[in-house]
Design goal:
single chain; alpha+beta; Helix Hairpins; 2 domains; eight-stranded mixed beta sheet; 19% strand; elongated; RNA-binding
Length: 425
RNA sequence: GGAGGGGUGGCCGAGCGGUUGAAGGCGCCGGUCUUGAAAACCGGAAUCCCGCAAGGGAUCGGGGGUUCGAAUCCCUCCCCCUCCGCCA
């Protein structure tokens, strides 16, 4: 949520920031509503103050045994106006709140301005794609030939965009999860969490999935709970409605969880292969920082995610998303894109974002700098470290051999009983 | 699913319908004492909103009601705990 004060005090700045995102947002409507809300509130509070004063006086006189009839009559006379104002004010506040929840995070000044992904800026590149003496195959051909990937049965069990990994494929999935969690917990200082995979609407609102993106979420019919689309949701909401004591920040969490996305509106996209599934595993990284520390933290978090790719020897590039390509809650995002020989292109494998205080405001995540200091909204960051399914794809496609076998990178071998390669049966 | 108990400040825990935003304790901050610390003693300190300020308003799980006045009474929803049943 944007700071309502900014709407009042820097409307032109906000208007430009939203325009940079490619949004024609009705800021004037918002401004009018906010002014009206404050006018009603001031009037309402004036009446309430009078009523409180009367009640106090009535109490005093009653104890003194004096007559209170005229005071009671005046107090009762205020009621109709009070009732009407209360209702008007409540409506204005509700409208304003609902509208505020739909305003995206203004981009940070360092974010390149642009309309769409075409304006994203490559920041750096790491590793060189292998020179292959044969035409690389896409992962679905490799996986099915290796007997470790099965889309047909996935669809039979659920529907399209679900897959089954079997044998070495399932073990590889598990190995990747364990390798990444070990790296982040042992070397990067993250606390591992195993959070609920179903969360309530308040949690989804806190991170920004609700109210605008409900159609992307799976929801349980009886309880009204939502399946998480990313562990960012439970991890960031871990400290919802808390005031963290001095010295508590930064806090860093990681979790490996399945993620569930309805992928509404992407019917034609990535229909083949594991790239876009309704369910996939992901290792997530989440930071809570003090206000001045979040951009330094974004670089660190991104580096932590990059380290996974480096150790797996997977070539990648880092891209700074432009204003028009930024997610709803993010003020700045780096995407990590891994090289996929079977696709002949780079594909997103991680997205690392600084949400500044946008989520903290929605979720009431605050901290104190000093024991006596006033609470401030924390900054929250999140990034994939990494998406497991897409890493699985990248391994198959990058380390494939002419005979369809796949070499296992060194760091992963301890997680696979020393296995050096996956070979067709 | 059945039966019962309970939700008060960072935590524990009091609270006859009227100076209770809320006793007391723990923890926290400042001070006195001390070489230093601890202990002891004294003092301070909730959160949010409106307002330049003075000040005002709201908040005792959420919402609604009764009343001039509700943490205290009524209704309703949510959550937690205990026991029984079922179950990974």
């Amino acid at each position: 949520m944007v700071d309502p004060r900014i709407i009042r005090e820097k409307p032109e700045w906000l208007r430009q920031k939203l325009r940079d995102r490619g949004l024609a947002f009705d800021l004037d409507g918002l401004l009018t509503l906010e002014a009206e809300r404050r006018r009603l509130l001031a009037e309402l509070e004036r009446l309430r103050a009078r009523k409180n004063a009367l009640s106090e006086e009535i109490g005093r006189r009653k104890r003194a045994g004096q007559d209170v009839a005229t005071l009671v009559a005046e107090s009762a006379g205020i009621d109709p106006a009070l009732k009407g104002l209360t209702e008007q004010q409540r409506k204005a506040q509700e409208q304003l709140d609902a509208l505020l929840l739909t305003v995206p995070n203004p981009p940070h000044d360092s974010v390149p301005v642009g309309a769409d992904a075409g304006a994203d800026q490559e920041v750096r590149r790491w590793g060189k794609p292998r020179e292959l003496a044969f035409t690389p195959k896409p992962h679905w051909e490799l996986g099915e030939a290796l007997g470790i990937l099965d889309f047909e049965r996935g669809a039979r069990l659920a529907q399209t965009r679900f897959a089954v990994l079997t044998g070495a494929g399932a073990r590889l999935e598990r190995a990747l999860i364990n390798f990444m969690l070990d790296l982040h917990t042992r070397e990067h200082g993250y606390t591992e969490a195993a959070p609920p995979l179903l969360v309530n609407a308040a949690a989804m609102t806190g991170t920004g999935q609700l109210p605008k993106f409900e159609e992307e979420l799976f929801k349980t019919r009886d309880e009204g709970l939502y399946l998480i689309p990313t562990a960012e949701v439970p991890l960031t909401n871990l400290h919802r409605e808390e005031i963290l004591p001095p010295g508590a920040l930064p806090k860093k969490y990681t979790a490996a969880t399945p993620c569930f996305r309805r992928e509404a509106g992407s019917y034609g996209k990535d229909t083949r292969g594991l790239i876009r599934q309704h369910q996939f595993n992901k290792v997530e990284l989440v930071w809570f920082t003090e206000v001045g520390a979040s951009y330094e933290a974004l670089e660190r978090l991104t580096a932590d995610a990059e380290e996974v790719l480096k150790r797996l020897e997977l070539p990648y590039r880092v891209v700074a998303l432009c204003t028009g390509d930024l997610g709803f809650a993010s003020a700045k995002t780096y995407d990590l894109e891994v090289w996929l020989p079977g696709h002949g292109d780079f594909r997103e494998i991680s997205s690392c974002s600084n949400c500044e205080d946008f989520q903290a405001r929605r979720a009431e995540i605050r901290y104190r700098r000093h024991p006596k200091a006033a609470p401030e909204y924390a900054h929250t960051l999140n990034g994939s470290g990494l998406a497991i399914g897409r890493t699985w794809i990248a391994l198959l496609e990058n380390f494939q051999e002419a005979d369809g076998s796949v070499t296992i990178p060194d760091v992963l071998r301890p997680y696979l009983d020393g296995e050096k390669r996956l070979a067709p049966r």
